[in-house]
Structure formats: C-alpha cells, structure tokens
C-alpha cells in the first residue's frame, strides 16, 4: 500500500501518544456507535487526569463508564449523564468535574473546532446557568451567548466502514456525534466494523474524509442495548438499537 495507508493492527498503536491530562473527544450516542475497543485500550493504559468530551459517559461497566472505575476521568463535558450511578457518585463526592452542555451546542462545539472556528453565538442556554459568565450579544433583537469551540488531543470514533485511507461511513444513530468528533482531534483514531480497499466506498456516501483521520483499526463490537423497552403487547417489542 502507499504512504496514505492509515491502518494499524494493534490498539497500542492506535492510541500511541495518549498521556495523562489530555483531552479526548469520543463519538457515540448513548451506547450507539461508540469505539468500544479504543475505550478499552484507554482503560488498559491507565491514563489519568483526562478531560473527556462526549454526549454521555456510557453506563456502569460499559462504554466510557469503565474509565470511571479507576478515576481516569478528571472532567466530563457532556449533554446527558443520567444512566451511570458511578458517575453520579463521583460528581456528588467532588471527584469528577462536569460541564453540562446542551446537546446541539456540544455537537456544534466539535464541528466548529474541526472547522477552525474558535467560537460561535447561540441562543440556546441564554438566561440559564449554561449562559452564566458568557459574553452576550444581540442579533435582530434576540440575545445570544458566545460558546467556544472544542478541540481534543485525541478523537476516538466508530465507523461502520472505513477504507485504508481513513474515509469513513457511519450508520443510523452513529451519525449523531461521530462525524463532528472525527474532525476535532489533533489525532483522530477510527475503529471500524469493516475496512475496505480505497475506491470501494462510494465518494458521495462518505461522511468523514480521510484527511481528518490519522489511524484506522478493525474492531469487534458487542453493541449493547442501553435500555430495553418492551411494550405491553406481546408481539410488539422495541429496543433502543445499539447500532
């Protein structure tokens, strides 16, 4: 393969360079589309003092939740944190700093970081604790608060398919945060269900161009369901899909 080949074969290679105190942006929505193997590698490395930016912090014993077990996360920037008892305990005990961010604002912070936009104005959060201490400006008679973009030392994302050059395609709910997260890392690592040869992906269907990606690894995924919901009708069963 050419020098554009970004595939690595071990998780040690995939997360090489991650050190204490770094900021990690993690893709995924609930347990949907999370880079399970990359998160497990961070756990194995024992890296501490991390600031983790993600929609949520997984659940007890799975996803980003496993990084709480040895107190590897110092600060969590999230929009939803309601499924993790250990997260709640560490927050209330003052062991974990949490910056709650509206979900759309969080996505835009990542997107802006990847686009080289340092900050943006949004009406979301004005007049609430989210807007406290932030610059306010009025446009067309409506007040907006200034939100700063987010950049990470590492971004870890999960793709359905990636080619050897790092071009990625996501499926369904995995598209919610992975595309934005992928652009916002100084080093972006993709864990893919399938790695294909260059040219096999339809260019019009690529969500993340390989220019944003530094490393690609083939993963195996458990794809847990975060919360199973069963209807009262015996033959009508629904569940929150994990991918």
From TrEMBL:
<dbReference type="GO" id="GO:0008410">
    <property type="term" value="F:CoA-transferase activity"/>
</dbReference>
<dbReference type="InterPro" id="IPR012792">
    <property type="entry name" value="3-oxoacid_CoA-transf_A"/>
</dbReference>
<dbReference type="InterPro" id="IPR004163">
    <property type="entry name" value="CoA_transf_BS"/>
</dbReference>
<comment type="similarity">
    <text>Belongs to the 3-oxoacid CoA-transferase subunit A family.</text>
</comment>
<dbReference type="Pfam" id="PF01144">
    <property type="entry name" value="CoA_trans"/>
</dbReference>
<dbReference type="InterPro" id="IPR004165">
    <property type="entry name" value="CoA_trans_fam_I"/>
</dbReference>
<dbReference type="InterPro" id="IPR037171">
    <property type="entry name" value="NagB/RpiA_transferase-like"/>
</dbReference>
<keyword id="KW-0808">Transferase</keyword>
<protein>
    <submittedName>
        <fullName>Succinyl-CoA transferase subunit alpha</fullName>
    </submittedName>
</protein>
